[in-house]
Amino acid sequence: MAVADQVFGYFMPVVNLMGPGAVKEVGEQAKGLGAKKALIVTDEGMTKMGVADQVKDIIEASGLKVVIFSGAQPNPTDLNVADGLKVFTKQNCDLIVSLGGGSSHDCAKGIGLVASNGGSIRDFEGVNKSTKPMTPLIAINTTAGTASEMTRFCIITNSETHVKMAIVDWRATPTVSINDPVLMMGMPAGLTAATGMDALTHSVEAYMSTIATPITDAAALMSMKLIGENLRQAVANGQNFEARNNMAYAQFLGGMAFNNASLGYVHGMAHQLGGFYDLPHGVCNAILLPHVLKYNLNSNPKRLSDIAVALGENIHGLSVRDAAEKGVHAIIQLSQDVGIPTGLTELGVNEKDFELMAENAMKDACSGTNPRTAKLEDVIQIFKDAM
User: Fold this and answer.
1) In what order do the strands lie in the sheet containing 65-69?
2) pLDDT of the residue at 1
3) Which of 246, 88, 89, 263 shows the shortest CA–CA distance to 168?
4) Best label site of 135, 208, 220, 277, fewest CB within 10 Å?
């Protein structure tokens, strides 16, 4: 039987630095890129804690000038991107350094894309809409979840429609990623839980994706294993360095998986919740994940049984379907153990928005690789089930 042409890509930053003390390399990396003046894109929290100034000092010690923009909101908007771009342009910067979690990295990517391509960040919604290389970006990660420091994904909220725009563009991949677990030691338990479940969702959706490959599968399964073994400990004791370090690797592996295999309906739907209600992305993912998996179960129960094993479940003697269901329950148990809310009702979500959110979710770039194709009423029902 003839096989249709299907080419799979693999996208990664050029340089990826990991381990305690990795942040100290940011100055030399910036210098090596030939930059003269860097814009640090971060949030108010990183600035108030003094972390932005610490990074500024490291970069300046390498001979570069530095300006700090701390306007990245938890769900960055097109207005945040425009404000950051004004600073970048006015200060004549030629390098961007993002510092924080996914919000800072995504805001920085938005600034970099528009700085080099012109127009508005809204012009880049969709897949590979840019035509020129993004401004060089060094992404310093401080959370173990989004993996935005190493992916080609950039999620920006349209301030007029309140829809999260999914920008998937290989030119949005950072030049250098830095994961220093020491920077993650101060994360509060709630943020640790939410970002950890975000990382798990990346790995699970990538493993279930219609364009998964043996390469992405390997990354996804190891990511799940590390999360199953370490997330509870990281939430229980934020100073547990081994758990923090393993979660840093876990989220990076999850990024490797979904950056190349993409995602599914969990993310397509979570983006709507974040855009409409300004809710934390990781929490939305964690609540939606088991409900989407139940919907997807018949599409590939064997893969769901693999997920059960990766999360430490014993499936000996079980049918494939029973093992698959055990995988779903393992995710529910982990979510409960780390304190994730049990449903969307607790987050103030209103059923009147379901139809519009479902319509937008089906258009989201992440939904195209879900293993089961849904109708509008199916997505609405998943939202209802997650309440």
Assistant:
1) 15-18, 176-179, 137-141, 95-100, 37-41, 65-69
2) 41
3) 263
4) 277
Residues 358, 378: Cα–Cα separation, whole Å: 9
Identify which of 174, 331, 348, 351 has the alpha carbon closest to the alpha carbon of residue 277: 348
Structure token digits, residue 252: 């990076």
86 alpha-carbon distance from chain centroid: 26
93 is written with which tokens? 């910067």
Q: What residues form DSSP beta bridges with 38?
A: 66, 95
Give the pLDDT confidence score for residue 7 in this predicted structure.
85
Give the C-alpha separation, 6 to 173, whole Å: 23
One DSSP character per residue, 217-233 reads HHHHHHHHHHHHHHHHH
Q: Which two tokens stand for residue 99?
A: 């510092």
Check residue 6 and give its pLDDT. Answer: 80
Integer angstrom CA distances of residue 194 from 142, 188, 282, 365 = 14, 10, 5, 22
**Is this prediction's pTM over 0.85?**
yes
DSSP letter, residue 77: B
Q: What is the pLDDT of residues 173-184, one digit of tens each?
A: 999 999 999 999
CA 378, distance to chain mean position in Å, is 25
